[in-house]
Amino acid sequence: xxxxxxSRGETPGTPQKNRFTGxxxxxxVLVAGGGYVGMYxxxxxxxxxxxxxxxxDVEILVVSHDPYMTYQxxxxxxxxxxxxxxxxxxxxRRVLDKCAILIGEITAVTHAxxxxxxxxxxxxxxxxxxxxxxxxxLVIAPGSISRTLPVPGLADYGIGFKTVEEAIGLRxxxxxxxxxxxxxxxxxxxxxxxxxxxxxxxxxxxEALGELEDMARYTARYYxxxxxxxxxWVLVEASDRILPEVGEEMGxxxxxxxxxxxxxxxxxxxLDSCENRLVVLSDGSRFPSRTIVWTAGVKPAPVLAATDLPxxxxxxxxxxxxxxxxxxxxxxxxxxxxxVPDVTSAEPGALCAPNAQxxxxxxxxxxxxxxxxxxDRPAKEYAHKYVGSVASLGLHKGVAYVYGRKLKGYPAWFMxxxxxxxxxxxxxxxxxxxxxxxxxxxxxxxxxxxGSLEHPRAEFALAAGATPxxxxxxxxxxxxxxxxxxxxxxxxxxxxxxxxx
Length: 501
Description:
The protein has helices spanning 36-48, 50-55, 75-80, 92-95, 121-126, 154-157, 164-183, 187-193, 203-219, 248-260, 356-374, 410-423, 427-442, 458-463, and strands spanning 27-32, 58-64, 68-70, 89-91, 100-110, 115-120, 131-134, 137-140, 144-146, 158-159, 195-199, 232-236, 263-266, 271-273, 278-281, 286-288, 291-294, 298-300, 317-318, 331-333, 338-339, 388-394, 397-402, 405-408. The chain is α/β, with parallel strands linked by helices and 501 residues long. It folds into two domains: 27-145 and 299-374, FAD/NAD(P)-binding domain; 154-296 and 389-441 and 448-499, 3-Layer(bba) Sandwich (FAD/NAD(P)-binding domain), CATH 3.50.50.100.
């Protein structure tokens, strides 16, 4: 539970009442989620409602699992070391300075009572359980989670690529595997360490694979016994094409470009098993690998099922073109969680794709409609026609399909960078990323693995006499043994990937 500061005259240690659990000081707009839709909606609202916020007539409360918004299209470059990981995230408290930020997780919503059930770090420490927060308007934008399949071994050995932590962990892991291959005398261990499997041929998988292959090929020059041709990269895609958003022709070009770099692209193939780090594919292939990256799609956040709001057959909120949740009053949604009608499509019943290109634009319209509702003005429909996409295939390589024009190679890669730099929130982040790109053109790549950051207490715990290989209770880890079986969360960027215009 979040507690307020002690007021004058109160005895220190006296329990304080959570200001969010009581009635709001004004009309409370609760924003559930601090991702694309959540952050941008709150950002536009604090501009549109500046006078009301100053008077205390309106309160904007953002409940987010993380204190930052991750700009996911830059995760591949962060993983490759082209961008510092702290520059691909935007701190919510700095950007949303007129909003109240509560770090926690919404576990249920009862819109009939206008309440949301929230768990925070404080409620866990206090043992008080989740608290109920009342609201007047609800913006539900929890985003999505990885869509996983019951593949044997995936939960034990799969690596996700949806968060900045996963991106940096994957970079450290790839370099660590090269260290293992360089130091082992066992050919089987070496082969498994130098085999990298990516499952999913969308933006997340292709861009991550392209950037990391570039990085690993460059890094190999600093190993005396690991050559670029020793590295084996495999892309597994269940359909008959990759990067469908850039069109069939550009998708075929992307496959040719990847294969030219000795990347094994397997179309119409599925991952059947990865138990004991043995990859088994549906085409009958079997080979060992210590790196299985899962980027095979997303699904709506589980909290949507814990609401009394209407869902479609895919678990997304049924919405009107004005971004209201169907059949409700004062409930709004956009982005991955919302099934928003595409009014620009000639196809009956067409929905907007759950990608960041729509999410950012929907957030602006959503904020305008909430402001209009507060001022008794009519809401407007969301309408945006999809105009194309761009994708990076590694340094100086890319594909693009924009306004019917097809680009490939350096021009597409340059367009990819320019577009995403323009979409990156805050001038601060734009300047830092541009500076890093300029410096990376003047100096050599960084090839350092900081895998010990994942277990910061390891060195001290061993010095203090902790049992090797055992993780202490409530501690971040005590062992640096890279052969120990690791369990990592799965994830992907299948939704935010097609952010490009």
